[in-house]
Amino acid sequence: MRKSILVTGGAGFLGSHLCERLLSEGNEVICVDNFYTGSKNNIAHLMNNPYFELIRHDVNFPLYVEAEQIYNLACPASPVHYQLDPVQTVKTSVHGAINLLGLAKRTKARILQASTSEVYGDPEVHPQPESYCGLVNPIGIRSCYDEGKRCAETLFFDYHRQHGVDIRVARIFNTYGPRMHPDDGRVVSNFIVQSLQGCDITIYGDGSQTRSFCYVDDLVDGLVRLMNSEDTVGPINLGNCGEFTMIELAEAVIRLTGSNSTLSMCPLPMDDPKQRRPDITLAKEILSWEPTVSLEEGLIKTIEYFETLVKRKERIPEE
Ligand code: NAD
Ligand code: UDP
Ligand code: UDP
């Protein structure tokens, strides 16, 4: 059955893969984006599809379209970008959620929120289950994103309880893959671009902090399963359980690119979480979902993509 599906943030990294997947299943997709961090290049290959429609729109403003399902992904996701205009970041999460929930209420659409592992902050519980309430600084430089996303979750659950809106909430852990922007600022794209260009690899802090990296196709599959599940509203963690230090990630990227880049230690940004790994017991049980792409396989595919964008340079050895 063809569905009419609205994807906000559809011209971004995750959103463009999601639009592609939904179209491939025969749905009609309305992509809404203000191109703050997304790009028309990410969706150029979809523009001739008669079932794809692009609307340039900022979700801070009301939006009147008809849809049966809504995926709300609009929000800058890289710390560099979300800290550039923190007030806009909070507004996008909060006003964006209100407007899209209002739309879902009016159209009786099911609406999924792209929440984040950042709701756990700098976690004292490891790995993080959905029941953990998190340790988040409300006034730091990451708060615009973390607290904005936490407030969006609150709005989703209040619209659900108060107005009966049919919600789904996914807590997405670090995800990477083709179509990340080369200047995105997140660690995987930074390390790959630096390796391909023979530049120093910028390790923030001592590089002992950990993250768990999920390949984009696995993540998109989790989002679609959650949206179509009748068994949970969430919140549900979606992420890969492999946990790596930033030093380990840098070493893997250097090996897979065959680069001769070296590591350069830089200051650790404020409130940078020390460890992060999802507990995905619920996703396995309820959605029969778990990631299938290893870090090495995923990095190889991502490196192939960046090689088409970035001119490879060898580092010139110092005398
Ligand atoms: P991205 O920056 O590539 O995509 C975000 C998209 O939202 C962009 O196309 C941007 O232009 C658009 N956007 C931003 N503000 C908007 C606004 N006010 N109105 C309309 N469009 C707007 O980031 P991404 O990695 O694709 O992340 C997508 C979503 O998933 C975000 O909500 C993010 O918080 C969430 N998420 C991503 C990750 C990850 O690791 N990639 C992890 C956790 C959560
Ligand atoms: N809204 C929207 N599209 C719709 C319906 C509502 O953008 O199709 C916005 C509307 O501008 C409102 C918000 O969503 O500010 C919240 O809607 P709700 O019905 O909860 O609020 P109300 O209209 O009662 O203030
Ligand atoms: N990081 C790093 N070098 C970079 C970019 C990021 O060492 O060039 C570190 C960053 O400090 C953090 C981790 O990599 O500890 C993941 O950062 P990212 O911005 O990708 O995501 P997030 O911090 O939101 O998990």
Automatic annotation (TrEMBL):
Keywords: Decarboxylase, Lyase, NAD. It comes from the Bacteria. Its cofactor is NAD(+). Residues 5-239 form the NAD-dependent epimerase/dehydratase domain. Gene3D superfamilies: NAD(P)-binding Rossmann-like Domain (3.40.50.720). It holds the Pfam family Epimerase. The keyword Transcription does not apply. InterPro entries: Epimerase_deHydtase (IPR001509), NAD(P)-bd_dom_sf (IPR036291), UXS-like (IPR044516). This is SDR family oxidoreductase.
